[in-house]
Amino acid sequence: MFDKNEVALTPPMGWNSYDYYNVGVKEAEVRANALYMAENLKPFGWEYVVIDAQWSDPNALAHIPESQYVHFSQFCLDEYARQIPAPVRFPSSAGGKGFRPLSDYVHSLGLKFGIHIMRGIPRFAAHNHLPILGEKKITADQIANPFSVSKWNGDMYGIDMTKEGAQDYYDSIFALYAEWGVDFVKVDDICNTNMYPHNPYSAEKEIEAIYKAIQKCGRKMVLSLSPGPAVIEKAWHLRKYANMWRITDDFWDEWRLLKAMFERCEVWQREVGEGCWPDCDMLPLGMIGKCFADERKTRFTFDEQRTMMTLWCIFKSPLMIGAELTKLDEETKRLLTNEEVLELLKNGARAEQVRRNDNECVWKSCAVESGILRQSQNDTSESMTIALFNLSDEAREISVTTEELNLPLKEYKIRDLWEKRDFDGKEKVAFSCSVPAHGSVLWRISGS
Question: Could you give the CA distance from residue 398 to residue 389 in angstroms, rounded to a whole number?
């Protein structure tokens, strides 16, 4: 047994294949993105390489754009009803090797390896009464719950955790992932089972079963739950059993979705802590959408991209890049490698919203205790980071008073973390700035 929080003491940072490759990423593409991360992003804290959905389906993307998933596809399984990588897409997995060769490559770069799975057991396995690994001689149909299904993916039945052998199945798949060297598992259709709006947390017992399976398998893994919105009334349960949980449905490059995230972060701000990270979802930056029949540069303006990164970092959301890394432009790369901004993920504390209306929002975070943002030995306990957000469609002056921030009246120095420049110290009763439409500023305030 180990403390599940210790595998994610700070918000995980990495790359996920979904926003660019949809459900169709291939091994060579994963390797290329991993290599780019190792050579360009790893020094800034980026470390997870995560393969998203359908890696066991040899025919993934066959019905794009009419349908995202191949309905009733006979994806690749082993003799114990466990999904294995499709060799036609992941050649190194042939011969029963699974993801071990690919994870070994990722680990050789000093990075960590992750996969996506759907909650439950494959319908194909249940219909064909495939055996479950273990001594109980249980078959898949005996633990499958045909009345627990996904609203948007037809591959799986939920598992009835009251049935004998149910825990054995989850134990068996995570034992396999441990053999593969998996460090991160994103489990889908579990954080909010939106097929059942009157019981959106209906997979509660499966979350517990997965937690137990990770504990038993002997390998530490980050447990990430999707999709959202997560159920705030179950925050205690999420903190106990998971490391990350989505607080939104799939997030894409639309201003209305980004603006809505301010309310979601307000709701979840008290649940952020070591090993427990409410998740704002992936960063749709750079080039995305190729396998959705819409390859494009993100629709977010530069100011909107900076606003997204500012909110995610001061809130301390996990950061998962959705872009094709090998096509990152320099502007996007700079956005993802600003060490002064990213430092908030490690050393920012007790972030909270100061105020919000339809036009603007202000957040603050306590001073870091160590790290690159500490400017001198004269920094005081009143130091903090503040973010001013313009949520309106026109440039506007945004101000916040020292009283609102609970800072005593005295002189302060200001460090602009995005621009990496200091302002002259002056006596302050308020901090004010002209902020572009949909834009933001991120300042470190410390005693002068």
Answer: 8
Give the tens place of pLDDT for each residue, 66-88: 889 888 888 999 999 999 999 99
> Assign residue 189 a region: left if phi > 0, alpha if psi is -120 to 50, beta otherwise?
left
CA 48 – CA 35 distance, rounded (Å)? 12
- pTM for the whole thing? 0.94
pLDDT band at residue 425 under the 50/70/90 scheme: low
Query: Residue 10: is its pLDDT beyond 50?
Result: yes
Give the residue from 378, 357, 353, 376 showing the smallest Cα distance to 365: 353
**Nearest to 106, CA basis, from 179, 180, 56:** 180
For 82, the token pair is 């466990």
Contact 307, 258 (CB under 8 A): yes
Quick one: pLDDT at residue 377? Answer: 37
Residue 380's CB is within 10 A of a number of other CB atoms, namely 13
For tokens 């990588």, the residue is: 85
Which residue is listed with tokens 């909107």? 304
One-letter identity of residue 334: R
d(CA 29, CA 17): 9
